[in-house]
Amino acid sequence: MEVNRPQAISYTKGCYLGQETIVMARDRGQVNRLFMGIKSASGETLNAGTKLYRNNEEVGHVTSSVYSPRLQQVVALAYLRRGSWTRERKS
């Protein structure tokens, strides 16, 4: 649920590890954090566990980061708390 890929979840398959957790999150209608890609504002790679802040409030943490030759900047994967999710819109 936190990866935000609903097409990867089967609600009709029989029993599987984690099924109860998935169903509870679905029934609540939300998750408290999402696993998302972000861009590094500093331009430097971020260590796993680096805390992320917005307006001096902690909103998540980094799991990994790397320099992307295609984007020509540092990108990272991070868990972000609900309420801090914004996506950059492409024109």
Descriptive labels:
91 residues; mainly beta; four-stranded antiparallel beta sheet; 1 helix; elongated
Molecular structure report:
The chain is mainly beta and 91 residues long. Helices cover 11% and strands 35% of the residues. It has 1 helix and 4 strands; from the N terminus they run αββββ. It has one helix at residues 19-28, and strands spanning 33-39, 51-54, 57-68, 73-81. Strands 1-4-3-2 form a 4-stranded antiparallel sheet, with no helix packed on it. β3 and β4 (73-81) form a beta hairpin. The longest helix is centred in the N-terminal third of the chain and has 10 residues, at 19-28. It is elongated and about 45 Å long. The mean pLDDT is 84.
Reconstruct the topology from this structure.
Elements: H1 19-28, E1 33-39, E2 51-54, E3 57-68, E4 73-81
Antiparallel strand pairs: 1-4, 2-3, 3-4
Rounded to the nearest angstrom, the radius of gyration is 16 Å
Q: Report the total helices.
A: 1
How would a textbook summarize the main sheet?
Answer: 4 strands, antiparallel
By secondary-structure content and strand pairing, the structural class works out as mainly beta
Uncertain residue ranges: none
Q: What share of the residues lie within helices?
A: 10-25%
- Terminal Cα separation, in Å? 28 Å
Mean pLDDT: 84
**Could you tell me the strand content as a percent range?**
35-45%
Order of helices and strands: HEEEE
Query: How many individual β-strands?
Result: 4
Sheet with the most strands: spatial strand order: 1-4-3-2
